[in-house]
Amino acid sequence: MGEPMGQFDELPRVRRGPLPSLYAALRRRAPQVATGRPDGGGGLLHVSYRGQEARVAWNDDLGQFAWHSGGSGQIGSDVEKAAELIAWALGARTGPAASG
């Protein structure tokens, strides 16, 4: 007899790209930051907070997030840290007290 199959063994794995993952991290870490879902054509994530606006892109060659507008330079590859940095750059607080 083989091993019994678990109920979740056959569920498909959900794979997100970097920008949808960053979108989700921003919604968790800084819900007050207005974040549009990443557009498919240009591969940009639009973010804004209190009149500050920016667009973030994923750089495939470097394997990290980068400012497309509203900032300059690389942001990094870690989604959670990138969300914190983007919120900070826009002047938004992050963490548990951010939504209040």
Report strand order across the widest sheet: 1-2-3-4-5
Order of helices and strands: HEEEEEH
In terms of per-residue confidence, which ranges show pLDDT below 50 for 5 or more consecutive residues? Answer: none
Supply the number of helical segments.
2
Number of extended strands: 5
The radius of gyration computed from the alpha-carbon positions, rounded to a whole number of angstroms, is 17 Å
Briefly note the structural class of the backbone. alpha+beta
Can you tell me about this structure?
The chain is an alpha+beta fold and 100 residues long. The mean pLDDT is 83. It has two helices and five strands; from the N terminus they run αβββββα. 24% of the residues lie in helices and 25% in strands. A hairpin with a 4-residue loop joins strand 3 (52-59) and strand 4. The protein has a five-stranded antiparallel β-sheet with strand order 1-2-3-4-5, with helices on one face. Helix 1 crosses helix 2. It starts with 17 loop residues before the first helix and ends in a 10-residue tail after the last helix.
